[in-house]
Structures are given as structure tokens and as C-alpha cells.
Amino acid sequence: MNADEVVSFLQSKGVKPTANRILVVKALHKEGRPMCLSDMERVMPMMDKSSIFRVLTLFQQSDVVHTFEDGRGMLNYELCHHQGTCNHADGHFHFYCENCQRSFCLDHTHVPDLRLPDGFSAHSVSLVIKGTCAECAKKHHTD
User: Fold this and answer.
1) Residue 71, by phi and psi: left (phi above 0), alpha (psi -120 to 50) or beta?
2) What are the pLDDT digits (tens) for 32-68?
3) How far is CA 138 from CA 56, 99, 135, in A?
4) For position 91, what pLDDT does the model report?
5) How many Cα neighbours within 13 Å face the side chain of 133?
6) Which pTM does this prediction carry?
7) Phi/psi of residue 101, each to 5°?
8) Do 14 and 46 contact (CB within 8 A), yes or no?
9) Element housing 19 (H / E)
10) Rounded CA gap, 64 and 44, in Å?
11) Are 34 and 94 in contact (CB under 8 A)?
């Protein structure tokens, strides 16, 4: 994603494209996987934690990112490529690798329609599978 594409993406979400916001989108796009705040700090050493957190908080409120808790109590962020307002209840699975401690978005594995009891309404759906990712499994078999 080049700078012009990032600017267009942010504008389509109603977010003013500032230098820090552009850097955060580029980092999330480059990594191509959900990342927690400490992951973001690691790949963006030029930006302090509080600045990254402020940008991610704005992005969450503006549907620039989706968030999910990875089962360790860590909030993970992934870019939302839906046009306009997103239906966060239309969820998909996520995978947390217990070996490398990375999270993965399983876009094509959708959470089945869940029927809630009368009076209940969901605002988001998240399902995290924990185990070993393909890369770690491959390393384990070659050791």
C-alpha cells in the first residue's frame, strides 16, 4: 500500500490522514496479520507507545481496524477493508500460535450464525483458536 492508497483508505473511513496515522496503516498492512500494541511498538520504533495507542483507538472508533482479544488478554488490531460502516457481528475466526505468539486472521473461516436467546444482542463476535501455526509446525518437523 503506497502513501496515496493509504490516504484514500483513511479518507474513505472519514479519518484525516496525518503522518502518524499513515505510518500505522502502513505497518499493519506490511505485516499482513493482526498485531497487538507491543507488536506495533516493535515494528514502529520511531513512534512512542502512547502515539500508537491513540491512533489505534481512533482507528477502532472509525472502523479502520477490527479488534479482538487473543486469549492472552491482549487486544489485537487488523485493518478493516469493508467500505463504510462495518458489521462487527459478521465475524471470522482468529488463530493464536502458542509457539511464536503471533495472531492470524482466518478471513475465509467465518463464525457460524449463532442464535442468541430473546433479549440478547451481539455487538461483536470473535472466536480464537489456539495451537501451532503452519510455520512453527514445519520448523518442529524439520528439527
Assistant:
1) left
2) 888 999 999 999 999 999 999 999 999 999 989 988 8
3) 33, 12, 5
4) 66
5) 17
6) 0.76
7) 60, 35
8) no
9) helix 19-31
10) 18
11) yes
What does residue 110 show for φ and ψ, rounded to 5 degrees? -90, 145
- Rounded Cα distance between 66 and 75, Å, is 10
Low-confidence ranges of the chain (pLDDT < 70): 82-91, 124-125, 142-143
* Pairing of β 103-110 and β 65-69: unpaired
The residues, ordered by sequence, that sit 6+ positions from 97 with a Cβ below 8 Å of its Cβ are 103, 104, 131, 132, 133, 136
DSSP 24-49: HHHHHHHHTS-EEHHHHHHH-TTS-H
Cell numbers for 123, please give them: 455487538
| Contact between residue 23 and residue 47 where contact means Cβ atoms under 8 Å apart | yes
User: How far is it, in rounded angstroms, from Cα 141 to Cα 53?
Assistant: 38
Distance (Å, whole) CA 37 – CA 66: 13
Type of residue numbered 2: N
Angstrom distance (rounded) from CA 73 to CA 94: 14
